[in-house]
Every structure is written in structure tokens, then in C-alpha cells.
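PROTOCOL LOG
Step 1. Enter all chains and additional molecules of the complex.
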Amino acid sequence: DARVTQTPRHKVTEMGQEVTMRCQPILGHNTVFWYRQTMMQGLELLAYFRNRAPLDDSGMPKDRFSAEMPDATLATLKIQPSEPRDSAVYFCASASGTGYSGANVLTFGAGSRLTVL
Amino acid sequence: GNSVTQMEGPVTLSEEAFLTINCTYTATGYPSLFWYVQYPGEGLQLLLKATKADDKGSNKGFEATYRKETTSFHLEKGSVQVSDSAVYFCALIRSGAGSYQLTFGKGTKLSVIP
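Step 2. Run joint prediction.
Step 3. Record the structure below.
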């Protein structure tokens, strides 16, 4: 089965350190999402890209978070500097096509669990 | 804005019990509605969906009917199994071309005991 691959699966770091999470979307999928999951807030959309261009990053704290797609096979989410409140599970998802009709092929990765001490 | 409200969990059921997880939504226009399931340590997987009023989505014994009059999309299963233990998320996408922005509920954790 085609899958979205996220690395690292687990990351423990200290406050102030830079954290980079990576995502390999399904080959041929042109839309990539970053979500954050916490107990308090549930699932929050941080940013998403179509054809590598950022379409919406309004859910992302701009001062410390950045998301990029250096190429079609790699999406990155960077936090610098990290803070304890960033502790969460970060999910990447990818989809093909355009518009909501493609939601049935929104495929999630297994997530990157981040703990900031 | 769009929002999804799910019943709070956790929900604990015995095997073969009947399951209902309530979901109501607020949205402009005519959204598409979804249920996603998240098994421990995994990402979310699409369980079922409905794209217009009165549609019934179904998969793996689960069903949900899009009720526009009550703005609801309750998830049901007639006989749960231990393997159904997971977190279930109700979600919507607002109508309109070019939109992929899923709005999720907070999730309902289901535990099924033998």
C-alpha cells in the first residue's frame, strides 16, 4: 500500500532547540497538509501546500514555525526555537486532485510525537 | 465559521454492544461529512463519508447518515468488537471548489472490552 512516511516518529528535545520534522507524501499526490494533535486542542491544521506552493499557513505560529516543500517528495516542518507548549503529535497528510472531492484520498502519516522539555 | 461537536468520551462498551457516537456540525452551505478512525500509534484513516443530505456512509459495519435538518452525522455500529477500540473523529469540509480544509471534532475514544 502507498503510504505517507514521517520522520522522526518520536523526538525528545530541550526547550530552545531546533526541531525539524519530515514528510514524504504519496508519490503523485500534489497536496500536502501539516496537522498538530494535542489533548486540549484536538487536531489543528497548521499549513497546507498544493503543487509545492503554500496555500494556507494561517494556523501556524509564524514566529517560530516554518513549513516548506523543497521538492515534490519532501515536506518539512521546522520549529525554532522549540517550547514545551509545542509538545504534540504532528501529522502530515497528502491528497491528489483539487477540491473537496479529493478528501476521500486524504492519507495520513503515522505522526511525529514531539516532546519538548 | 465551521465547527464540529462530538460527544465526549471515553466510551467503554462490552463486545457485541450497540455503538452510537453523536456528531453535530455548524457550517455554511452544504458541507461534506466524514468519520475518521485513529488506531493506537497510527495516523487517521477515513472510515466513511457522505457528501449530501440523506446520504448514508457505511464501512466495516459502521454507518452514519447525513441529516441536514438536525445538522448531525451520528456514527453507529450494531455490534462492536475489541478491534474497534480506537479514537473516532467526525469532520467536515465546507462546500466550494478548491477546499481541502477538514474541520475535525475533538475525537471520541472508544474502548471495547471482551
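Step 4. Note key features.
The first strand of chain B starts at residue 3 and ends at 6.
Chain B has a mean pLDDT of 91.
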